[in-house]
Amino acid sequence: MIDLREASKNVKSWAKKVGKMQKDNLTKANLLINKKSTDVDLVTEVDELSEEYIIKAIKSTYPEHGILSEEAGKKNCKSDYLWIVDPLDGTTNYAQGLPIFAISIALKYKEDYVLGVIYIPMLDELFEAIKGKGAYLNGKSITVSSKDKLNQCVLATGFPYDRAINKDNNANYFAHFVPKVRGLRRMGVAAFDLANVACGRLDGFWEINLSLWDVAAGILIIKEANGYVKYLENKRGVSLVAGNENICKNIVKEIRKVD
Question: Which letter does DSSP use for residue 134 in this model?
């Protein structure tokens, strides 16, 4: 096993350097934006530059490790170590100039997430966790909300990129939850949502058809913040619920009512 504390220092340094570049280019004139799978699935030149920097840093520091990244795909699948990278989660926000986006980097060893970092550049907030060592926000220990009733909760969710053409698009669940909770938030950045659940600002989160790079770091951070993650079976992609154990059970119960 590599030295995870040293690896965490490296990842935090990479995330902050990339975060500065993202901040510096947020209001750039004529930002290059391309479409991917749909008209609402975007990639900017800053996504690609951010990913290029992180992948180069990983290859330089851990040349034998595998990498799974949003834009570049998967490289070197033979290693027991897999870095899972979302270089800019919240591309639509970024392309609009909305200052809510995140960098998410996780390390998986065999079947376990062992390190996770989520950095929010515009807030200068760095969430981190090492397996078995707790979760932290800017060096201070964090824990999930202790609420147990949905009507007291503020939840977050999001919608898949193919929502216009696939009926399994979360709209029915969203409508079901509206009258049952204190508030619903849709910030367009799954990594940020998960980080906010981990520190108790949000009481819970659910979403369907995510990708591993959206959630890998957040899953470990939530678990290390005494939280709970429940995968939604028979749903597309990575579909999950997060929060404390009671709230997760309540969210799943309501989702099953709709199903």
Answer: -
In the chain, the number of structural domains is 2
Residue 145, pLDDT score:
98
| H/E element, 91 | helix 91-96
H or E stretch including 51? helix 45-61
- How many CB atoms lie under 10 A from the CB of residue 31? 14
The boundaries of the domain holding residue 74 are 4-141
d(CA 140, CA 126): 10
Based on the domain organization, do 132 and 159 belong to the same domain?
A: no
Give 99-141 pLDDT, tens digit per residue: 999 999 999 999 999 999 999 999 999 999 999 999 999 999 9
Domain of residue 194, CATH code: 3.40.190.80
Same domain (yes/no): 167, 105: no
pTM, two decimals, is 0.94
CA atoms within 13 A on the CB side of 103: 33
